[in-house]
TrEMBL record:
The lineage of its organism: Bacteria, Bacillati, Actinomycetota, Actinomycetes, Kitasatosporales. NCBIfam families: SCO5918_fam. This is Uncharacterized protein.
Length: 104
């Protein structure tokens, strides 16, 4: 499939992407990601590997469109905060000895 990433045309195939990503260790996912094989990679890492371009030269949207067209599953941003992390209001309230629920 022909696609354009960072103004450069690429001929990508699903098997070619799988081969390029084989043996590549997945980085920590902090934004959009794509599942390739059994691993979930950040889209910028995938874009860098398959295009051999600097990550600043293309957008994650360009890579997501290409990977979706090839049949890979793409994911939105992960959750914003892990469960159990107190909010600043809860922390301040606990320090002051108050309750964590606002008064009505």
């Amino acid at each position: 499939m022909r696609c354009v990433i960072a103004r450069y045309p690429f001929e990508l195939t699903k098997s070619g992407v799988l081969a390029s990503m084989k043996g590549v260790r997945a980085e920590l996912v902090t934004g959009e990601s794509v599942t390739i094989g059994r691993r979930r990679y950040p889209v910028k890492q995938v874009g860098q590997v398959i295009t051999r371009q600097d990550r600043r030269d293309f957008t994650s949207g360009e890579v997501v469109r290409a990977m979706t067209r090839l049949g890979f599953t793409c994911h939105e941003h992960p959750g914003t905060a892990p469960v159990g992390v107190p909010t600043p209001l809860q922390t301040a309230s606990a320090l002051l000895g108050g309750t964590t629920s606002p008064e009505v």
